[in-house]
């Protein structure tokens, strides 16, 4: 089987970590083939750092490169919709960073387009591909915890002064950044059904970006999820699942874990191979799990990963949409200007 040729879209920090992680995978399976940025110089510098054969000063040029097998989109949130559309319309498989889009209707449109084009299309919720998450879901499915009753997840880090959080024009806010993780954890455990009741509160800045949220989801059969995001303070950053027969704790960082605690027993899942250079974000070695799953799916003719389905992506978008409405956050104006 030929190596999967990656086209990297955007040269920011997450793209750096993704390229660094892909380099840890067998070169017979994965090739960093091309990179594009709105600034040709930045693209060329990125290509030099990661020994990438081609660099482009526009995203359209990369989209039209017939040798690129899959596009990894790591740009700012506000560009995800238009770039996903560009690459899908040019016949490329796509792995796009979370949040897939900022608007529910955009997410639905992209999923529909990908299905029509019969292309692999994945929201890059990297947590789902960690062995610890796979084990957690196996234990839940096996009934080890009995009837599920409660999920608690908190994600608090001091990032209120970071531009991607406090600037509306960048698609800012805690919900569409760290909030993705608390919501996806709930969907991973409770499934893609929508809750019966959603209650949310938020603390907004002058630009209308949420800097903290509290979310309660009530599902059928008495299941409840209590979720929080906070950009003012550090919290324990763990996730917990409680059932009638036991519990699972996912310690910090619950979004990129090396351990779960099942009924008091610690189960360890060491990170994969060492990279050539340091990562920007903690445990980004785990991005290799995601890249490997993309290749596995494409090689086997799958259009989505069973570990993070498009149905789950749409459920996430619906949850985000309702929470945004309740706390008074909207990104509609960002797209009316275009």
From TrEMBL:
The superkingdom of the source organism is Eukaryota
Residue ranges of every copy of the Gfo/Idh/MocA-like oxidoreductase N-terminal domain listed in the record = 4-122
Q: Which Pfam families match?
A: GFO_IDH_MocA, GFO_IDH_MocA_C3
What Enzyme Commission number(s) does the record list for this chain?
1.1.1.179, 1.3.1.20
Please list the reactions this protein catalyses.
(1R,2R)-1,2-dihydrobenzene-1,2-diol + NADP(+) = catechol + NADPH + H(+); D-xylose + NADP(+) = D-xylono-1,5-lactone + NADPH + H(+)
InterPro entries under this entry? Gfo/Idh/MocA-like_OxRdtase_N (IPR000683), Gfo/Idh/MocA_domain (IPR050984), GFO_IDH_MocA-like_dom (IPR055170), NAD(P)-bd_dom_sf (IPR036291)
One GO MF term on file is: trans-1,2-dihydrobenzene-1,2-diol dehydrogenase activity
Asked if the record carries the keyword Oxidoreductase, the reply is: yes
The main enzyme category here is oxidoreductase
Domain (GFO/IDH/MocA-like oxidoreductase): give its ranges. Answer: 133-248
**What's in the keyword line of the UniProt record?**
Oxidoreductase
Which family would the database say this protein is a member of?
Belongs to the Gfo/Idh/MocA family.
PANTHER family xrefs: OXIDOREDUCTASES, TRANS-1,2-DIHYDROBENZENE-1,2-DIOL DEHYDROGENASE
**Any idea what this protein is called?**
Trans-1,2-dihydrobenzene-1,2-diol dehydrogenase
């Amino acid at each position: 089987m030929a190596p999967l040729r990656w086209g990297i879209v955007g040269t920011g920090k997450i793209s750096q970590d993704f390229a660094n992680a892909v380099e840890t995978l067998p070169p017979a399976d994965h090739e960093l083939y091309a990179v594009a940025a709105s600034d040709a110089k930045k693209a060329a510098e990125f290509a030099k750092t990661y020994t990438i054969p081609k660099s482009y000063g526009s995203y359209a040029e990369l989209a039209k490169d017939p040798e690129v097998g899959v596009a990894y989109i790591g740009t700012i949130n506000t560009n995800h919709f238009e770039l996903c559309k560009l690459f899908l319309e040019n016949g490329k498989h796509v792995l796009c960073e979370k949040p897939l889009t900022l608007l529910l209707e955009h997410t639905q449109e992209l999923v529909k387009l990908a299905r029509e084009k019969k292309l692999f299309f994945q929201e890059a919720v990297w947590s789902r591909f960690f062995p610890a998450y796979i084990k957690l879901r196996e234990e839940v499915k096996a009934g080890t915890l009995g009837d599920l009753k409660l999920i608690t997840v908190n994600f608090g880090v001091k990032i209120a002064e970071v531009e991607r959080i406090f600037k509306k024009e960048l698609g800012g806010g805690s919900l569409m950044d760290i909030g993705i993780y608390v919501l996806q954890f709930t969907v991973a455990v409770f499934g893609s059904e929508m809750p019966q009741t959603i209650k949310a509160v938020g603390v907004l800045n002058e630009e209308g970006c949420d800097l903290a949220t509290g979310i309660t989801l009530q599902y059928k059969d008495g299941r409840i999820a209590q979720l929080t995001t906070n950009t003012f303070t550090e919290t324990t950053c763990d996730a917990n699942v409680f059932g009638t027969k036991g519990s699972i704790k996912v310690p910090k960082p619950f979004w990129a874990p090396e351990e779960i605690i099942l009924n008091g027993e610690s189960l360890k899942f060491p990170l994969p191979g060492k990279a050539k250079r340091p990562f920007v974000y903690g445990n980004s070695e785990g991005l290799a799990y995601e890249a490997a799953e993309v290749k596995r799916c494409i090689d086997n003719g799958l259009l989505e990963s069973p570990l993070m389905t498009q149905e789950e992506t749409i459920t996430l978008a619906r949850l985000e949409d309702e929470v945004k409405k309740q706390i008074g956050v909207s990104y509609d104006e960002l797209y009316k200007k275009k």
